[in-house]
Amino acid sequence: MQFYNTKTREIENFKPLKQDMVKVYFCGPTVYNYAHIGNLRTFVFEDLVIKTLKYLWHRVKTVMNITDIDDKTIAGSQAAGLKLAEFTSKFTDAFLADIAKLNIDRADEIVPVTSLMPEMLKIVNKLLTRKMAYVWEDWSIYYDISKFEDYGKFANIDFAGMKAWARVDNDEYDKENASDFVLWKAWKKEDGENFWEEKFMINGEEKVLKWRPGWHIECSACNMKYFGPQIDIHMGGVDLIFPHHQNEIAQTEALTGKEFSKYWLHSGHLMIDGKKMAKSANNFYTLSDLISKYKDTPENVVTRAIRLSFLNGKYRENIDFSFSKLESNIVVIKKIDELLKKLKRTYDNLWEENNKISKAFSMDLQGFMMDYVDAMEDDLNTPIAISVFNELITYLNSKIDSLEITKKEILASIDFLKSFNRILSIIDFSLFEKEDEIIPDNIAGLFEARNTAKTDKNFELADKYRDELLAFGYKIIDDRTWTKLEKI
Ligand code: AMP
Ligand code: ZN
């Protein structure tokens, strides 16, 4: 498998540090509000990378943090009149529900930052002892970026002319404001009851201070706790390259002297009208917004269509969100659902005769699979993978329509679709597996009457019964050799 490594700025072959387990970390959400679909695009991308690794037989362990303490969560909880933990747990739950709806697998470890105090404390103390960090006059502790030789290299920023001793205590800032960044923030009135009292070694003396952590230290501590000094892959949205990932590298590598992560993968942004979707720009939609907008469409059709919209773009490129694109993806998902239902109907109605898999059929399926895997191994080229998938859908439809398919071939097709879906996660297999619903007697009677009318060529009467069935919520499906009733 090959992918683009932000660190080397090259497409590289993936080679795990150790064959037995690939260690994968990605930065989780800040739980001060509902995630927007821009955030969710990044989590779909990360899910795709992990599923592709697993598909290619790697054993993978995944860890994600949850930022449940920072300026935004504290301000939000105070505005809502709630304790921080109550406030953040509501949005953590909402986030986990959203990712489940998008068929994103949960990380093996989901780690709230407030559970990492001992690890963060340890790192800050070590950085102080090694003089990579210093205490400022308000008792906040800052990382001294001039002490880290390669600071800026990861983010491709040249700090040669940097102003010395400038400091930022905001977690988010741009490269123009790059300077020493805050590791631990001294308590301020606005923080209210959200602080920890911890012992620090300052100039050889132990001092107890009231603090809370800065943002970047979380991920260094989380990785150290669950993985140790080195991991294989670290991921996030492209906006995290600077300062967040640069700072994670500076902290971790200053402590361990080892390369923190071998590969760094970043996804492009979800844009809307040419601008990055962001809460601050107030140009965002949440998953619930979209589900309510399309309330006449089954929820799992809308959510799979959203996932498909993300897969239609290359992960490293920005993609534009639009309702018209989403609507055409809803149509695609409905077509996939129709295929599943058609496979099921055909399966139920086929005779057992000639029940084998032809060589040509099996070769055709293998061909689709090879093209699909090639595309995924090529820096996760999902647009190509999706076009191969669409060709497969067309192929299966034509096989069914021309009645050139056997029962065994239908089961083989389902297995192939399942294999494709291990990464794509956009197919609803319950449509194939579901047993026929029991049809009430009055409906069955109408259906029979309609079929008799049709056989008698009394089409007017047949149409009348068909409309009555429709009014009861049943659709008649006629094929060349059989007729079936389906609940809408
Ligand atoms: P946050 O909850 O702000 O910490 O962000 C969670 C993830 O969403 C991070 O990996 C960000 O890079 C990512 N993200 C934020 N905005 C967008 C966007 N418009 N498109 C794609 N990813 C985004
Ligand atoms: Zn992080």
Could you please describe the fold and organization of this structure?
- The protein has 488 residues and is an alpha/beta fold.
- It has helices at residues 37-55, 71-80, 84-101, 117-129, 216-227, 241-256, 287-293, 299-311, 323-349, 359-377, 382-401, 407-424, 430-433, 441-455, 459-471, and strands at 2-5, 10-13, 22-26, 60-66, 109-112, 133-135, 141-143, 167-168, 180-186, 196-202, 205-213, 231-237, 261-267, 270-272, 275-276, 319-320, 474-478, 483-487.
- Strands 6, 7, 8, 9, 10 and 11 form a 6-stranded mixed sheet that branches.
- Helix 2 (71-80) crosses helix 3 and helix 10 runs antiparallel to helix 11.
- It binds adenosine monophosphate and zinc ion.
- Adenosine monophosphate binds at residues 27, 29-30, 38-39, 41-42, 236-237, 239-240, 269-270, 276-278.
Quick synopsis:
This protein has 488 residues and is α/β, with parallel strands linked by helices.
